[in-house]
Every structure is written in C-alpha cells, then in structure tokens.
Design a protein that fits this description.
22 strands; DNA polymerase, domain 1; binds adenosine-5'-diphosphate; binds magnesium ion; 25 helices; 7-stranded mixed β-sheet; OB fold (Dihydrolipoamide Acetyltransferase, E2P); alpha/beta
C-alpha cells in the first residue's frame, strides 16, 4: 500500500476543523468515517450563484436564492440581552426580512444600515411574510454575483448536524480543506482503454468538479464519470462472482430427458406450451446439461405460465435421479403450488411433500426422513425449507418462486443443501425493469417469457370513486349471476393495522348485507386467521362454493382461480403499482372477460393518480414496472429493500441512469472476458480499486 492511499484512509477526525466530537456526528449521521468517505459525500444539488433574483420574484420557500439590495432598517429585539436581530433588505422591486437568532453581538456590529449586500439563503415563511434566517451576507457596492465559480454545492445534511454547525455550508468548507489536503492522492480507478472508449474524464478531475464545478459542462462530465465508476464496479463484482461460481462449482449434469418428462409431455400436459415457454425450457435444458451450475432468473408477467416451466424443469431433475424443491414466500402460495404440482405430477408417480410453518412437528418427522432417504422426489414449502433440519439425499434443483420476497441470504442458504450446490431457478412475481434486474440479479442469467397463453383477453380496468359503489355492486351481482366469482381486496399496512382490519370487517359486513345468504356465500381471508382456516376458506372459494372472496393482500401473490373474473381493489390509492398489477393478475386466467375495478375516495395524490392511470392504460407488466421504478425510485421499488441495493451506488439513480448501467455492464463484461484475473498492466488500476472496494467480501479465487 502506498503512502498516497493512506491519506484517504485517515480517520475523518484528523481533518482540520473536524475533531473528535464532530467526527462522531459525521459517523453517526452520515456514515462518514474516513477522508475518502467525505470525498464521496456528494452534493445533491447546486446553486447558481451567478443568478441574482429580484426580491419581488421570491415566492417559494423551496430552495436557496440570492438577492442584492440595501439594508433600510435594522431592529434589535430584547434590549440589553439581545434575543433577535432583524433587518429589511430592499431592491427596486420589493423588500424581504433578514433574521438572526445567533452570533447576535457580531451581527449587530457588522450589519450596517444604508449599505448594499449580496444576500444568500433559504427563504422561510413566517406569518405570511417571507424572510431569510441566518443568510450569508457579502458587502458589495454593485449588483454582481459571488466571486469564483458560479455553481455552489448543496450537501445532504441532517437536523442534528445543522444544529451542531455541520450544515451544508460547513460541509462545503470541510470539503475545500479535504481537497487541498488529499485530492492529489486520488488514484485513477479505470484502465486507459475504458477511459478512452467511454470518453471519461480522469477520476481526480471528476471528484473535483462534482464538488466544485467549473461550469455546467464539467459538472455533467464529472457526474457521468462517477456514476459510471459506481456501476462499473458493481457489474464487475457481479460478473466476477458469476465467473468464480462457474469455476468453483461444477454443476450436476442432467443429460437425460427421460420417462417423467416425456410421459408428462405426451400424456398429461393440459395445454400446448406457448412459444415463449418452449424457448425458456430450452434455455433451462441447456443450462442443466452444460456442466455448470444453473443460476437463472425467470421473468414473466403475471399469468404468463411460469409454474409450468418450473414443473418441467423439476421433471428433468427427477429424470436424472435428483430431487427438487420449490420455495414460495407465503403459505397460501406454497399450498397452491403443492395442489397444482400434485395434480400435474402425481399421476406420473412423483411423490411430493408440503412443508410449511403450520405442518405439525409430528408430521414433519416422516417428511424429513423421506427427503433424507430419497423416497420423496420433491418438497414444496415456505422458508421452512431452508432450516438446517431439512436435509436432502441429493437435491439437484431448487426453484424459488416470487424471489423478491426473499433475501439474497436466503437464496444462498438453499445452495448449501447439497455438497455441490443445486441448480437454481428464481422466478419473479412481476417483471423487474431491466436496469434493476441487471443490478440486483446481475450474477444470474435471465430468461423472459414475453407472451401470454392464447385466448387471454385484456383485463378491463377502471377507476371508480366511492359514489359509484352501488353501481359497482350491481355489476358484481350481474357477474355472479353469470356464474363468475369476485375478489374484493382491502389494503393492510403494518402501521395502521387496527384501522385496516376495521375497514376490512366493515367492508365484509356491508358485502354480506348486500349479498345475503343463502343465495350468496362470502369468504373472508386475512393474515390474522389461523392457516387452517385460511386454507379452508380458500378451498371453498376455489371449489366455487363461495362467490365472493373478501381479503387482504395475502391473496396477492400467485393465487390462481380461473373462474374468478372480477377484482375489486378497495382504497386502491394505497397500493403500490406493482402490487396493483399483481392483484389484477389474479383475474383474467380463464376464458371469460375479466374486470379490475379500483375504488378510491376523492382525494388523490399526484403519484396515486399516475398509478391508477397507468393501470387503466396498460395491462403490460413490463411497462408497469418501468413506470413504478420511475415513480418510486429504486430504493422503494417493490421488495428491493430486502434484496438490498448495492451500497456503492451513491450518485447513481437506477430509475434514471439505465443507459449508464448498460454501458458499465458491457465494459465490465468485456474487461473480464479479456482478462478474467485482471492481470494485464492496463487493468492494474481496476484490480487495485476492486480489491479496495471488496477487501473482505469477495471471493478472490483465481479463474484460469
Ligand atoms: P404465473 O406466471 O403468474 O405464475 P401461472 O403459472 O400461475 O402464471 O399460470 C397462469 C395460468 O395460465 C394457469 O392457470 C396455468 O394453468 C395457465 N397456463 C400456463 N401456461 C399455459 C399455456 N401455455 N396455455 C394455456 N394455459 C396456460
Ligand atoms: Mg406464479
């Protein structure tokens, strides 16, 4: 390690102007421990200090502004024990109040009536008047912007930091010192080849300009360079991991397509596969026979038939003498998969067990035994499957349904169920936007089912306000009289559980009043019920014994009842977009025209309105996913919190920077293909940075 590296690793405490107390705050509030961490604390926006606003045009309290004017009066409040100073600043267009609560003695001496100032700060509104509290003041005789480069950084800070003199302005001062002291120690992280090809500016110049831009053009270049870096090293990590896995683990070779598969395909399969399903099965077959361990992500819209793809993959495993498992995120879903797969596969003599939290301990004993001695072919369950007690004779394939409900760590645990890790097929509930998939699942290969089974009609989707409830009920009645079934779903959000359950119960009551027994039967399913009761109700609905299913989102994922053709979503504005799409996907599974009715009150946020409009506009899950990512940003995107966005992405916004993701992926791929161990001289900066970033985390096995 060279001297220059040491400087950037210095504890932040040792930066002049920080010291132990502020260092602690910076650590706690912003996670800044070292010089390098501070250097990577980027501004979230910039103020153009060359712009001076006429005072009258200042109306918003949203951002910092700069004005120029004369102090026409100064008022000192509190007598001898000064409490506050306020001053009126005036230009040709109007006046604004300036207010101070601190450093009063000093302010009192330095602010002079009649003098002109350049004033910078964030307006606030107090008693309908705009004023600027603790503005930055500079004496100026004429109207001209601040000296130096025009773009000033504004840094993310917190209340606590602000109160301790570490607001944006103070951070900016620290940053100047940091740059003086250590910018020269920043080492280039990329190869000359990549810098050339992508036309990137040097890292040092980028870091300088991201904090203190010379101009807008340099700022844009700096931001691009830094985002590229972030994404490049994420992709490098993922692709490198993929290579290491491939190198380290020999996959079981499933070379046979045998009796199970062939008999099923000839005698039992209930429908013709879609072209997309066939293509994906081929991709999977190729993986399973390649000698490498399969790690494949299967993406497809709701209802595109992922389950059948899973079933066929399972049969290939069985044909080659291996066991399989399928893990689902909820019990309802596990039960349903078990029911479906048993129906498909048991006629072939496939023995399937179900293992979930509610299986009694005494019933588990034989299940565990049969998995261990190999008399059972397949187990389906919830995360109960990853418990240590579950041991297989020879697990060859693990299918994970609706993976984004599971953490990455859970995925990894399934790997350890065999001396050699099983092939892994991950299926998502709804499509994930490409950029996000590349980043979250960049170490997996991706298959896409981009076609729905034939004969599916678009689900007619409408948005109705509460005043049309009677009409909606009338419509439900018609549909039920035609022999259809109806879901009515209520939101259930952890924080307002009590109120939500009340809504659900009130709703249930009004439904049973409107649809009375014995003509109508209404089921109810929610999370507080015992799982046997849930199961019982689901079964009644499935068999058509009840016409209406009132439920919370427990039915969201995967539930498949083709005769249900109407989905009513109550308080639809409270659901996220992908959740709405998932819910809608519960209908439209049979031959009948299906409907999705989203009920809301009158008040809707802008975002809520966009969500509902998108639902009404399109049935396409890939399109919905893109809109959702744009609306919510990657951090909130359905389930990504659990799966974890890479920490390295500080400046990158995955919902906007998709182009850079693509380039970074391509360059990382090309780099590793040419030089898997990063041994070439030109790649030395990459190797060094990569090792620094992943000092402990990464498996630095040699690939040869
Ligand atoms: P998802 O991809 O959402 O998990 P499922 O696997 O539950 O979708 O399939 C949805 C429905 O479509 C099921 O009822 C299934 O039997 C049916 N299905 C799947 N593939 C086909 C096909 N090729 N032709 C006709 N129906 C199909
Ligand atoms: Mg499914």
């Amino acid at each position: 390690m060279s001297m220059t590296d040491d400087v950037l690793k210095s504890p932040i405490e040792y930066l002049k102007g920080v010291g132990p107390k502020r260092a602690q705050l910076l650590q706690k509030e912003l996670g800044i421990f070292t010089f390098d961490d501070l250097l990577r604390h980027y501004p979230f926006r910039y103020v153009d200090r060359s712009i001076i606003y006429p005072i009258r045009s200042v109306v918003s309290t949203e951002s910092h502004i700069q004005v120029f004017g004369r102090i026409t009066s100064v008022r000192r409040v509190g007598g001898a024990r000064l409490q506050r100073i306020s001053a009126t600043l005036e230009d040709e267009t109007g006046q604004i109040e300036l207010v101070w609560f601190k450093s009063l003695r000093w302010i009192s001496e330095s602010i002079r009536e009649g003098q002109t100032y350049l004033v910078y700060g964030k307006p606030t509104r107090f008693k309908s008047q705009l004023n600027i509290v603790h503005p930055e003041m500079e004496e100026k005789s004429s109207r001209q912007g601040a000296a130096g480069p025009p773009l000033h950084p504004v840094y993310p800070s917190t209340d606590k930091l602000n109160n301790n003199g570490l607001g944006s302005r103070a951070i900016s001062k620290l940053m100047i010192r940091l740059h003086e002291q250590s910018l020269n120690s920043v080492q280039e992280s990329l190869s000359g080849k990549i810098l050339d090809e992508v036309r990137l500016i040097p890292l040092r110049l980028a870091l300088k300009n991201v904090h203190f831009p010379e101009n807008n053009e340099m700022l844009a270049k700096a931001i691009f360079r830094i985002k590229f870096d972030e994404l490049f090293f994420v992709q490098l990590r993922l692709l490198r991991q993929k290579l290491v896995n491939r190198n380290k683990y020999k996959g079981f070779v499933f070379e046979k397509i045998g009796d199970f598969f062939n008999r099923f395909y000839k005698e039992f399969i209930p429908f013709e596969l879609t072209e997309a399903q066939k293509r994906v099965i081929k991709e999977i077959r190729r993986d399973l026979n390649s000698g490498n361990q399969m790690n494949r992500l299967l993406q497809g819209d709701v209802g595109s038939g992922k389950t059948m793809v899973a079933a066929l993959s399972v049969l290939i495993a069985l044909d080659n003498g291996f066991q399989a498992c399928l893990m689902a995120p909820t019990e309802i879903l596990a039960n349903q998969h078990a029911a479906n797969l048993r129906q498909y596969l048991e006629p072939l003599g496939v023995k399937i067990h179900l293992l979930s939290g509610s299986v009694k301990a005494s019933d588990r004993v034989p299940i565990l035994e049969e998995l261990k001695n190999g008399t059972c072919h397949m187990v389906i369950g919830t995360h109960a499957l990853i418990e240590d007690k579950v041991v297989f004779k020879n697990l060859g394939l693990a299918v994970i349904d609706e993976q984004h409900r599971f953490g990455v760590a859970q995925r990894a645990k399934l790997w350890k169920k065999n001396s050699n890790p099983p092939h892994v097929l991950v299926m998502t509930a709804t499509p994930i936007p490409r950029t996000l998939a590349m980043t979250l699942y960049g170490d997996l290969d991706i298959s896409i089912i981009d076609e729905l089974p034939p004969g599916r009609k678009e689900i007619e989707t409408v948005h109705r306000k509460d005043n049309s409830r009677m009409k909606v009920f009338g419509f439900l009645e018609q549909q039920i009289d035609l022999g259809r079934q109806v879901y009515i779903v209520y939101p259930l959000i952890e924080e307002s559980q009590k109120l939500d359950y009340k809504d659900l119960m009130d709703g249930y009551e009004s439904i049973t009043r409107r649809f009375p027994k014995p003509k109508y039967q209404v089921s109810i399913v929610h999370g507080k019920m015992k799982s046997e009761d849930k199961d019982f109700e689901m079964k009644r609905f499935q068999k058509g014994e009840t016409q209406i299913m009132v439920a919370t989102t427990v039915i969201e994922v995967g539930v498949d009842i083709p005769n249900a053709s109407v989905m009513v979503i109550e308080s639809a504005e409270r659901f996220g977009l992908s959740q709405l799409h998932q819910l809608r996907g519960r209908v439209g599974r049979g031959a009948e025209q299906s409907y999705c009715i989203m009920m809301t009150g009158y008040k809707l946020s802008e975002e809520g309105r966009t969500r509902l409009e998108s639902m009404v506009r399109t049935n396409d899950g890939f399109e919905i996913a893109e809109v959702d990512l744009k609306l919510r940003g990657p951090g909130d995107f359905h389930g990504t919190q659990q799966s974890g966005l890479p920490m390295e992405l500080k400046l990158t916004n995955l919902s906007k920077d998709n182009q850079i993701v693509g380039i970074a992926r391509e360059k990382a791929d090309a780099t590793l293909s040419a030089d898997p161990n990063l041994e070439q001289a030109d790649n030395f900066p990459i190797l060094k940075t990569f090792k620094k970033l992943h000092a402990k985390k990464i498996n630095w096995a040699r690939i040869s």
